[in-house]
Design goal:
With about 160 residues, the protein is of the alpha+beta class. The protein has helices spanning about 20-40, 90-105, 145-155; strands at about 55-65, 70-75, 80-85, 115-120, 125-130, 135. The protein has a six-stranded antiparallel sheet with strand order 3-2-1-4-5-6.
């Protein structure tokens, strides 16, 4: 049986997976973004994409518990069950619980502490973890998700 040697493969421009013009365009885009961000940092440009500041009108301490399925339970400060949410209902609440769990683990604090739910004068809702200082404006996650927590403040 004879083996014939194959000629070496050469790649011509038509064999390239990503055309050169696209690679150059992506590099140009990355460099443009880097320059814009650098200028903003060097000139101390104020952050404009933050939620509007507003006075807190109502707060409530809650204890959250959740799991990966999306099910969640919420207890009041005295231990009373406020909500026992199925995976279909509690997905966002359970997601916030997982973020809290991660933040608390990162800071080395107790995992079972309360979270403060806040209503602001401008109608927005936020959560704040007193043990880590972490917080989030809930309107950034959409009206339906903010409403899931607004219900807990009313109950």
């Amino acid at each position: 049986m004879s083996h014939t040697a194959r000629p070496p493969r050469t790649y011509t421009p038509e064999h390239r997976i990503v055309p050169t013009v696209l690679v150059r365009a992506m590099f140009g885009l990355v460099m443009t973004v880097l320059v814009i961000v650098s200028i903003a940092v060097w000139t101390d440009r104020p952050v404009t994409s933050t939620p509007p500041e507003s006075a807190i009108t109502h707060t409530r301490l809650l204890y959250l518990d959740g799991d990966m399925s999306g099910a969640a339970s919420v207890r009041a400060e005295d231990g009373t069950l406020i909500a026992d949410l199925s995976p279909e209902e509690g997905g966002f609440v359970s997601g916030v619980y997982r973020v809290l769990d991660r933040e608390r683990t990162k800071h080395g604090v107790a995992l079972d502490g309360p979270v403060e739910l806040r209503r602001h004068e401008n109608g927005r809702f936020s959560v704040h973890d007193p043990s880590t200082g972490w917080g989030a404006d809930l309107m950034g996650f959409g009206r339906d998700n903010a409403e899931a927590f607004a219900k807990l403040l009313r109950e």
